[in-house]
């Protein structure tokens, strides 16, 4: 059986082979089953750890794990097409506004510096950065963001179709740059209870800067998560003439077709030790005074152990002192007593 590391109980990611032979074919999705990706300078790299067990039911020490990495190069190409009709000559056609490339990156903020997030813990500060190529034709608006577990068991929407947050406590609104080619949002790391891998997916809607279609970026969201600028534009279009309404509908259809989906994923682990400096601390709101202080359970146990050892040493030293004093008293009493300690009498010199 072959399965990604940590997903031996998931039947959708695990495959069993009765007769392997010389070669076997194992299919692994790029946006599920713990497959993660990272952007390179000239492409994108997907990586995963696969476990191969020779037994179909038992996990033995004969199993081996393999780190699999697949790199795909992304190159920008300029489309050139030659048309030759009735030998009238060749007319080159150039694409003047190529489709911009969209990317999503997730960074882990530590001590004010950003690192590409791969393995984090619940509550860590993360930043999603979504961007397209810098140019003067297109802007963007981030919509329809969601987080998935990668097992097709559950998902949670984060940003709706208007570009507004669904639950601000999980993820707030995106902040855009002036040229509207870059959007960022900061949030705390979260996960599903039954898996450590989470996948984020967003839709980038391209808008034309020259035609004014990017005027509603960033969206003005209300408490219900609706874009007020979009509703205002819709009311204005309702009172427009029929010809202008068709133009607006066609324009919206053209913008809707210019969309790019971006993906990214990472591993989020449980918080198992809150005493480390690189892990979040848990703060409890309770009534306390200036004389109260808090000590962790681990430090309290260490203190109790040290105090016990010191107490044992003190007792042993006290016993040694008592025994030493008793030996000294016994030696002094023995030295003071003698067989000649009685009255001295010499019969040879005695007189009657």
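Q: What amino acid sequence fits the structure above?
A:
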């Amino acid at each position: 059986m072959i399965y990604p590391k940590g997903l031996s109980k998931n039947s959708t990611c695990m495959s069993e082979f009765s007769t392997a032979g010389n070669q076997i074919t194992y299919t692994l999705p790029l946006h599920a089953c713990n497959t993660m990706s990272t952007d390179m300078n000239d492409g994108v790299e997907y990586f995963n750890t696969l476990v191969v067990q020779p037994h179909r039911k038992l996990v033995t020490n004969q199993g081996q794990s393999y780190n699999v990495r697949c790199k795909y190069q992304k190159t920008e190409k300029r489309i050139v097409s030659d048309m030759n009709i009735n030998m009238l000559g060749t007319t080159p056609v150039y694409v003047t506004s190529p489709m911009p490339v969209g990317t999503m990156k997730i960074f882990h903020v530590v001590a004010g510096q950003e690192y590409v997030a791969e393995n984090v813990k619940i509550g860590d500060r993360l930043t999603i950065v979504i961007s397209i190529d810098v140019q003067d034709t297109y802007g963007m608006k981030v919509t329809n963001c969601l987080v998935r577990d990668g097992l097709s068991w559950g998902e949670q929407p984060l940003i709706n179709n208007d570009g507004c947050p669904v639950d601000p406590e999980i993820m707030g609104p995106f902040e855009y740059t002036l040229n509207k080619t870059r959007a960022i949002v900061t949030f705390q790391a979260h996960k599903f209870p039954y898996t450590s891998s989470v996948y984020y997916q967003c839709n980038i809607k391209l808008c034309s800067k020259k035609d004014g279609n990017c005027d509603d970026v960033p969206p003005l969201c209300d408490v219900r998560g609706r874009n007020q600028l979009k509703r205002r534009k819709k009311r204005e279009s309702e009172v427009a003439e029929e010809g202008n309404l068709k133009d607006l509908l066609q324009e919206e259809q053209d913008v809707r077709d210019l969309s790019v989906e971006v993906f990214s994923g990472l591993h989020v682990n449980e918080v198992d030790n809150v005493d480390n400096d690189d892990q979040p601390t848990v703060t409890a709101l309770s009534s306390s005074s200036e004389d109260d202080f808090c000590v962790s359970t681990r430090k309290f146990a260490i203190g109790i152990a040290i105090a016990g050892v010191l107490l044992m040493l003190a007792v042993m030293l006290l016993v040694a002192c008592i025994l030493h004093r008793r030996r000294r008293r016994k030696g002094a009493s023995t030295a003071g007593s003698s067989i000649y300690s009685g009255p001295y009498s010499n019969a040879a010199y005695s007189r009657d």
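Q: And what stands out in the fold?
A: The first helix runs from residue 228 to 238.
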